[in-house]
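Re: duplicated header lines in exported structure tokens

Our pipeline writes sequence and tokens for each protein into one text file. With two proteins the header for the second block appears twice in some exports. Here is an export where it did not happen, for reference. First protein block:
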Amino acid sequence: MFRSTKALAISNARHLSTSAILRQEAVGTVGTVPVKRPVGGFRGGILGFFFGFSFASALSIYYLQQDNKIASGLLLASVEELQQGTGKISSHLDRLQTVEKELAALKSSGAIKDDVTKVRGEMKKVYDGLHLELLDLRAHVWGVEQDLQKVVKTGESVDLT
């Protein structure tokens, strides 16, 4: 437990020495010796940070590109559906335009209600005129029958004019 004086002299001499080897040697220290970090350790931390950052950035860019591809595909499908719908609507509009043209042609060539009532009135006049002529003809035929019966009964000749 007691140190010899020679050992004390050597330990004191070591503390007082200025050589590089003796300075690094720690004699009689209590606890752990602090270890000097090399300068590259700081660089390694920065390099690790940049490596992790670049890896995370690359991974996020990859996922963003995948999402972009999916969204582009969905958008393209929507555009194609819209084109098909637009084609159907334009074909329906073409059919409607042809129907409207045919309807306009029928309206221009068809009779209007006023025309129909006008023609109906004219037909009534013609029918009434024919009815009157028929009545006149019957009256004339009746007169001829009367004259004929007179002739048959009397045997005389009758002037037909």
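Second protein block, exported in the same file:
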Amino acid sequence: MPQAITRAASIPKLNRFGWLMAVYAENHSRLARLFAPADLAEGRYVSSIGDGLDLYLDVIETHRYTVELRMTYGLRDPQTGEPDPSAFVRLYRDARQVEATHCYVGRRWQDAIGMYPPPAELISHRMRMNTFLGKWLEYLAERGHGVATLRRCESSVLEVATSA
């Protein structure tokens, strides 16, 4: 009886770093569709959909290839007085990627995983933050937030950035 030779399909495997880069690309697509932040001037913007939970988008700095943002609700953490939830986001214009650099004012990556974490732990931490960002952006889109609900605020973005 002849033996059948089975060939495993050659499906490329994505390592954790590659997966993280794919999450960054997805987050770029979501954020660009939602608020088109690459086209916004520095300052504070608010997206209000009438549910009493306004979203604030602070364009902290714009550079040739990057845009620094902060997303938060008008809610404050009762212990720290800081906006919570909040995410600091870096948009890479040329690479078409969006990275959440940290998601809570009091918990930078050094606070969460130490000064010299192993690379795998650092990638896992970034994966969690950026998965959170992706789900938050998806939720905001489902609720009806977007460019049409976004308007410029008079309050200064510096008030928020200096408290961070």
